[in-house]
Amino acid sequence: MRTRISAAQVRGAFVEQVEAISGENLLACNQCGKCSAGCPVAFAMDMLPSQVLRLAQLGDETVLEADTIWTCAACQTCASRCPQGIELPRVMEALRLIQMERHGDHLGSDRLAPETAGGLPQLAVIGALRKFSQ
């Protein structure tokens, strides 16, 4: 006899927290990989966007240690490609917020030299402002 597992049983406290902050249903993702295939900064990530989402789905809080959540440019390419309509940048933002709540800011503005900031692409500056402003 098969035992049915409800969505409430699958969603642990971490999954519920990410979903509450992001407004996204993590379990809607079927791991097609289109988000990772289209990501323009995937080459610079320590894990692919689809892998981040999978760890979040499983409630694996080690995902908070991934550089990928900080590398995401929030460009919405993944969201536009997702057949399930998941806005992955919202999930990345939720993970960043949880990480900052637990451990403080990932990068303080005092650690970024003015000459470095001047040479960054505009998308990186906008993404950083979204990530680090509260």
Largest sheet: none
Shape: globular
Question: Into which percent range does the helicity of residues fall?
Answer: 40-55%
In sequence order, what are the helices and strands, one letter per element?
Answer: HHHHHHHHH
What is the CATH topology?
Fumarate Reductase Iron-sulfur Protein, Chain B, domain 2
Descriptive keywords:
Fumarate Reductase Iron-sulfur Protein, Chain B, domain 2
Walkthrough of the structure:
This protein has one domain (11-132): Fumarate Reductase Iron-sulfur Protein, Chain B, domain 2 (Orthogonal Bundle), CATH 1.10.1060. It has nine helices and no strands. It has helices at 7-10, 13-22, 34-38, 49-57, 68-71, 77-81, 88-103, 114-118, 122-132. Helix 2 (13-22) packs across helix 7 (88-103). It is globular, with a radius of gyration of 16 Å. The mean pLDDT is 84.
